[in-house]
Structure prediction request, 370 residues.
Amino acid sequence: MTQRFWVGVFLLTVVVCGPVKAAAGDLEKRLKVPEGFSWTIYAAGIKNARKMQFTEAGALLVTAPSQDKVLLLEPDHNGDGASDGRRTLLDGLDGPHGVEVSGGALFVAETQALRRYPFNGKTGQITGQGVKILDLPSLKGHWTRTVRLGADGWLYVAAGSSCNVCIEQDQRRAAVLRVRPDGSAWEIYATGLRNTVGFDWAPWDGALYGVDNGRDWLGDDFPPCELNRIVKGGFYGWPYANGNRVPDPDFGDKAPQKVTESLPPAHAFGAHVAPLGLAFLAKATLPPGFERAALATLHGSWNRSKKAGYKVVSLHWRDDGTIEERDFMTGFLDGQKVHGRPVDVIVGPNGAIYVSDDYAGNIYRIAYKR
Prediction:
């Protein structure tokens, strides 16, 4: 076990509890999706399954940071709802978390570097040596790094804070950065984002949204975790403000103007639910009511007297601009007993939805039958 998984109480708690692979039969009784949807275990036994991305040929890439690996899951050619096999694509990395595929390249966001590998998306093969295109902040604190390619041709990279609440010395932390795919230029895109692990672009207007994890040790029900509409140059409050410009008890009085200038969330989740994944559903096969919708994974709380989160929710944009949150995939939590912790969510090329679970070690496939 590498050092990064012992950073912070939350990560320590996960290690002490230990991932428990849930039996398929047990999950079949527990996991629920809306009427008309069905789910299968697309792949099982993937220790610490985190971020996902599809290749040109329909293979699913999955990062496994605790193994320092990127795995490739073969497509389901025989139609049984499960991947036909898996292999290790990359090994010996430094906590690989985010992964992106574009233009004959595979981009992997390790803890302290973003690297580009020559990649054949049709065969699923690495075809040359990796090159570092961006240095990323140190291991301390939130260690995950996420990478996505925007429609503007830039790679967007999220790096969380080095602490629960503090004034950062490294401006790359608690921020979203962006970099040219060849590494020729980079910039800080948005700040004040304590730990934005998942982000995606709304298909109807191209706006960038990201889920953010609120700070700890302010009670069971504050502050809310957030969905933010992230704009260039935007400041989203941390560590001076929480939620809708509520001054932080530790830092709010140190810079009142920062509280005033902070951009409020587009939607507030419950406190400590730890949203980690976000995917808009334009390419999914869905029933009416999901025309302007996204899914968010709530990994689940640790800093709370009673657990909260541990589910996938759907977010629905109303005509007045407000967002409605509904349960979408539940059953990972039974009372106070944990059976799974959803991490990432992605829409596949066939219109199905895929969810990773770093506790049970599964990838779930969710489909809607018209």
Notes: Residues 1-21 have pLDDT under 50 and may be disordered. Helices lie at 8-17, 24-30, 256-261. The chain has three helices and 29 strands. Residues 8-17 form the longest helix (10 residues).
